[in-house]
Structure formats: C-alpha cells, structure tokens
Amino acid sequence: MSAASDEDRAEKLRRQLVGELVSGGVLPSDGWRAAVAEVPRHVFVPTFYRQTPSEQEAVDASSPGEWLEGVYGDQLLVVSPDVKSSSTVPSLMAVMLEALDPADGHRILEIGTGTGYNAALLCHRLGDGNVVSVDIAGGPCRCCERASGRAWVPSSTWRG
After folding, report:
1. pTM above 0.90?
2. Residues in contact with 54: Cβ distance below 8 Å, sequence separation at least 6, in sequence order
3. In the beta sheet, which residues pair with residue 86?
4. What is the per-residue pLDDT across 66-112, written as a single tens digit (0 to 9) for each?
5. Residue of 63, 86, 91, 155 marked catalytic
6. Is 86 in the active site?
C-alpha cells in the first residue's frame, strides 16, 4: 500500500470507530467526537503486540491492513514487548473523557502520557497550551515527539 492509501484507510477506520462509539452511547459530545475523528491514533501506536499462548507478534506498518485494523479497533493494544505499556480501549477512553467534562479554557495535567494518544485528544479539545502530560518512562513518549508540531500534541510533555 502507498502512504496516501494508508492514510485514506486510516481516516476511514477512524470514522468507523467514531460511528461505533457514538452508536454505543459512549461518545455523545461534539467536541470529543471531533477529537476522535481527527486525531490519528496510528501515529501514537506505530507498533502493537498480539499475544498468543506461545509468542508475541509485533504488528506494524509493514502489514498496514492488519496494523490499521488493530489500531482502530475498540481493543486494548499492548505497545511494548515487555507488556508494561498499553493503549487503552477507545470506548473506555471516551467514557473517561466524557466524564471529565472540561470547559473551554480549562487546563489539564495528565499523569501517565503512555503513547500520547489521550493527551492528543485532550489537546484537540482544549488546545495544546492547556494540556501538560507527564510520564515516568521515556520510551512511550517518543510517539509524542514523532508527532510534535501538530496542533493536537501537548507542547509540554515531561519525562521523569
């Protein structure tokens, strides 16, 4: 697949995920709906690991169809081979973000950046100057660094 067709596929799968979350009743507000529709989760999950009883299989852009289907499925994704980091199930993220119910101008401190996807959703909704994300581990934050310069990436991501 070409990069353009991968991006088209990712956009289609994002729209499909939004539809599933809306029909499931977990994404009722326009602000969060727009964030999930516009922030590309695959930028923050360049690789995930499929667990089998006997092995861990890395799934990434070398198998774009399988990778994008996994990234935009409503499922937990293990993102480190030592199984210490994951990207939360999108429907659970939607429930938590809806429950947060921030107003325009609110500032958010996120503890535990992880892949950076949740921070990006927060930035999309509130503006990158209103979100600070902190993580103890350096590795997962690299996804945020790769995506830096985009409007939906926190301008402040600290690692300790």
Report:
1. no
2. none
3. 78
4. 999 999 999 999 998 886 788 999 999 999 999 999 999 999 988 88
5. 86
6. yes
